[in-house]
TrEMBL record:
Enzyme Commission (EC) number: 2.7.13.3
Regions that span the bilayer: 7-27, 39-57, 69-90, 96-121, 133-153, 168-189
Listed name of the protein: histidine kinase
Top-rank lineage group of the source organism: Bacteria
Pfam families assigned to the protein according to its UniProt record, in alphabetical order: HATPase_c, HisKA
Gene3D superfamilies (alphabetical): 1.10.287.130, Histidine kinase-like ATPase, C-terminal domain (3.30.565.10)
GO molecular function: ATP binding; phosphorelay sensor kinase activity
Reaction equation(s) it catalyzes: ATP + protein L-histidine = ADP + protein N-phospho-L-histidine
C-alpha cells in the first residue's frame, strides 16, 4: 500500500527546510564567511518534523512511518548536540499530541540510531565532502537495520501476520531505499548551498578590493602629472642656483624620481592583465633586454651574460614580459653591488606532462637571500634597499601569472640567487618563423 504520492510528500518535506534556510539565512548579506545558524536549523527541523508526522506513509493497515528521522539527523549534524537532543525529544511529544502513546514503539530504536550523528556532530564541519556523503548513507542504513530488527521481532516472536506479507516487506525495502537517497540529497543540497554562500561573500570582498585598487590607480595616475611639472621646474631652477640650495634641489629631484618610480610600479601592478596577445620571440626578447641592461649593469660593476640560441616562442604581451625580465635583472644587478659579479641568463625548452615550456634561468652571485626573505618575496613594499619600492617583484609575479607561467626563487645567503621562470611554449611552423 506504499504510495508514490506519500513518498514524494515526505521527500518534499525533508528538502524544503534546506531552501527555507537558504532563503532566511544564507542569502542574507554576510560581511564575513557565513556561519551555521544553529537555532534556525533547529526551528526549521521542528516545524518540518511536525508536518512530516501529519502526512505519514501508510505501509500497511497498522503501520505508518515517516522520514522525520532525517530531520533529526540534520538537526544534530548542522545544529549541534544541544539543538539535536531538543529535536529528538520533541518528536515523541508531537506524536503524543497528534496520535496516541501507542505509536511510540519505534522511538527507542530511533534514539539508538541517533548515537552515530551525536558522536560525529562536533567534527562534522571539518569532514571532507566524501566522508560526509558516506556517513549520510550509513546513518539511514543503520536506522533501517534497527527498524527491520523490530519488525522481525514482532513478526516472529509476537506473530504479527501483517509484517510477514511479501507486500509489506517490499514496501519497507522501497521505503528505506528512498529514505537513504533523500538523506544523501538533503546533505548534498545543504553543503552545496553553504558553499555557494561562502563563494558569494568572497566575491563581494574581491569586488570591493577591485574597486579600491582601480580608484587608487586613477589617483596615482593623476598624481604623476603634477609631479612631472614640479620636476621640470626644479630642474630649471637647479641650473641657476648654487651652493646648498643646489644640493637641496638635487635631493628633491631624487626623491621626486623615487615617487615617480613607486607610481609607475604601482600602475603596472594595477593593470596586470595581458593587454595584447601576440607571438613573442623569446630568444630575441631576451637578447634585446640583455643589451638594454648591459650598460646599466657594467656601470654597477656587474657582467651580464646571455646564452640563448634555441628558437623559442610564447604568447602574450611583449612589453609586460620585458618589464618582468627587466625587474629581475635589475634586482640581480643591485644584489651584486661592488663585488664585481656576473648575471647569467639561460633559456631552453622543457617538456613537462606532455606540454612544452620555456625555462628561463637568471643566475647571479650577489648577496643572496635568507629563508625568511625568500618567503616574503612578492609581498608589496617588501624591500631591503634604501631606495627600493618593494613593488618590482610583485609586478613580475603577477605578469608571469597572467601568462600562465610560474616563477621560483632559489637563493643562498652570501652565494647568490637563481630565478626560474616557466612560460608555456608556443609551436611555430618553420616558414612562419622567418617572418618574425
Ligand atoms: P626592490 O627592488 O624595489 O627592493 P623588489 O620587489 O624588486 O623590490 O625586490 C624585493 C626584495 O627582494 C629586494 O629588496 C631584495 O632584498 C630581494 N631580492 C630580489 N631579488 C634578489 C636577488 N637577485 N638577490 C638578492 N636579493 C634579492
Ligand atoms: Mg627591484
Amino acid at each position: 500500500m506504499l504510495q508514490l504520492k506519500d513518498l514524494l510528500i515526505q521527500f518534499a518535506i525533508i528538502i524544503i527546510p534546506v531552501f527555507l534556510y537558504e532563503m532566511f539565512w544564507l542569502s542574507r548579506y554576510h560581511n564575513t564567511s557565513p556561519k551555521q545558524n544553529r537555532l534556525l536549523v533547529g526551528l526549521l527541523s521542528l516545524l518540518n518534523i511536525f508536518i512530516c508526522l501529519l502526512y505519514p506513509i501508510q505501509i500497511s493497515d497498522n503501520m505508518a512511518i515517516t522520514f522525520s528521522i532525517l530531520l533529526m539527523y540534520s538537526a544534530i549534524l548542522y545544529g549541534g548536540r544541544v539543538i539535536g537532543i531538543i529535536v529528538i525529544f520533541a518528536k515523541p511529544l508531537f506524536m503524543y499530541l497528534l496520535y496516541d502513546i501507542s505509536v511510540l514503539k519505534c522511538f527507542p530504536f530511533e534514539l539508538i540510531s541517533c548515537i552515530l550523528p551525536l558522536i560525529v556532530s562536533p567534527q562534522w564541519v571539518s569532514f571532507s565532502r566524501r566522508k560526509k556523503f558516506a556517513l549520510s548513507i550509513l546513518m539511514p542504513i543503520l536506522y533501517a537495520i534497527c527498524i527491520i530488527c523490530l519488525l522481525y521481532y514482532e513478526a516472529t516472536v509476537n506473530g504479527v501476520k501483517e509484517y510477514q506479507s511479501e507486500q509489506t516487506i517490499l514496501s519497507v525495502c522501497i521505503f528505506f531505499t528512498v529514505l537513504t537517497i533523500t538523506m544523501l540529497f538533503h546533505v548534498y543540497l545543504r553543503e552545496f548551498l553553504f558553499e555557494n554562500a561562502e563563494i558569494r561573500v568572497q566575491m563581494q570582498k574581491s569586488e570591493k578590493l577591485n574597486m579600491v585598487s582601480e580608484l587608487a590607480a586613477s589617483v596615482a595616475h593623476e598624481v604623476r602629472n603634477p609631479l612631472t611639472v614640479v620636476r621640470g621646474f626644479i630642474q630649471l631652477i637647479e641650473n641657476q642656483e648654487s651652493g646648498t640650495n643646489r644640493e637641496y634641489m638635487k635631493l628633491v629631484l631624487t626623491e621626486l624620481d623615487r615617487a615617480e618610480n613607486i607610481i609607475s610600479d604601482y600602475l603596472n601592478l594595477a593593470r596586470p592583465q595581458i593587454e595584447e596577445k601576440k607571438i613573442i620571440n623569446m630568444t630575441e626578447q631576451l637578447n634585446e633586454v640583455t643589451t638594454l641592461m648591459s650598460t646599466y649593469a657594467s656601470l654597477q660593476g656587474a657582467f651580464l651574460q646571455v646564452n640563448v640560441t634555441e628558437k623559442m616562442f610564447t604568447i602574450g604581451d611583449r612589453a609586460k614580459i620585458k618589464q618582468a625580465i627587466i625587474n629581475i635583472l635589475k634586482n640581480g644587478v643591485e644584489a651584486i653591488k661592488e663585488t664585481k659579479g656576473y648575471i647569467k641568463i639561460e633559456a631552453n625548452i622543457e617538456k613537462m606532462r606532455d606540454r612544452e615550456y620555456i625555462r628561463i634561468v637568471v643566475k647571479d652571485n650577489g648577496v643572496g637571500m635568507s629563508r625568511g626573505q625568500l618567503d616574503r618575496l612578492g609581498q608589496p613594499f617588501y624591500s631591503l634597499k634604501e631606495k627600493g619600492t618593494g613593488l618590482g617583484l610583485m609586478v613580475t609575479f603577477s605578469i608571469i601569472e597572467a601568462h600562465k607561467g610560474t616563477i621560483e626563487y632559489l637563493s643562498e645567503e652570501g652565494k647568490g640567487t637563481e630565478v626560474h621562470i616557466l612560460l608555456p611554449a608556443y609551436h611555430m611552423e618553420e616558414e612562419n618563423t622567418e617572418e618574425l
